[in-house]
Amino acid sequence: MSPTPSPTPSAKRSRGMCGDATAASRVHLGRFGLGGLALMLLLLAALAGCGGSDDAKAPDTSASGAAASAAAPEVAKVTLIMDWLPWVLDIPVDVAQEKGFYADHGLTVKQTLPAGPTDVVKFVSTGKAQFGLYYAPDTLMGIGEGAPLVSVSSLMSHAPVGMAMAPGVHADKPADLVGTVAGVVMIPSTRASFATMLAMGGVDAGSVKVADPGFDLVAPLLVGKYDSVAVTEFGELVQADAAGQKLDYLDFRDWGTPDYAFLNVLTEKGFAQDAPATVRAFVAATMAGLEYAVSHPDEAVDIYVARHPELDKDLLLAQWKAATPSMSAAGKHPAGWQDAQAWRQLGDWMVKSGQLKKPVDVTSALSNDYLPQR
Question: What is the pTM of this model?
Fold first, then answer.
């Protein structure tokens, strides 16, 4: 059955893998992509109880050069709460630490891991952490529940998430999933993307059995426990490649889910107003880490693995190369630039799909005012 055209149609995406992944001797399942994220976001609903200019100039990619002309930060010691367990998208932060970019900007940054799925929102909202890494859909959900958050830069400006097929299962449209078992993690936005894909493909939701695969995604998929599983293209799909399996893949963005900034840097609105130089310094140093990691992938992965020796270097390098095209490095806009229209489209879709009870004011949910300029 031919799918109904998307309101904003785009060319169908290829898998777009960058670099070759070698078979990993230590594959850490659930530490990369949606399996790890599901663990963090499973209880997000518990939170209920408890825009910048397009004319921004290109950034100075020299951390020390940018720091020399910047105002001294009002707060020199800050805490960054990470998104969850160590994984590929956190590489720029560790690079910024190791290369001294934060120190160059007058900052001492303490990194901490969340103990629970809502800790990023809670810690940043209450000042226990000055900055946090978090995902756009969950950020809007937090703001919708009253959290005083603002996204001050993007780390990954696209959302390469979709359905990977088990070996021997072939699909190039949602209708090919009829009569199969799909593993879709209990992340609200992922579940909504899957439902949107079926609807746009003209597929009755009842014709596909949906199961929660938990946090270990790749191994069950490769042995055929599920016919398909929701994955990140740069995470679990690369992991499958490393195991010698080239899997069919349906990108959610081809089937109704708007593209959006997957991972972003958050702070509390009051803190941004009271300590703007600190926010600018943190963003500039983090973006310097991002741009260095993009330009020096092997060194960046070496730095990260030295700090997290439990991770597999070959697999991580393949994942970082696959993630790089979607990262928010400088191009037409400065590194970290956020597209307000993309956030609006995300918010509209989240309301339509029932993830948000009412629209969120995107103009106050993000700001490009803290990005480095030259």
Answer: 0.83
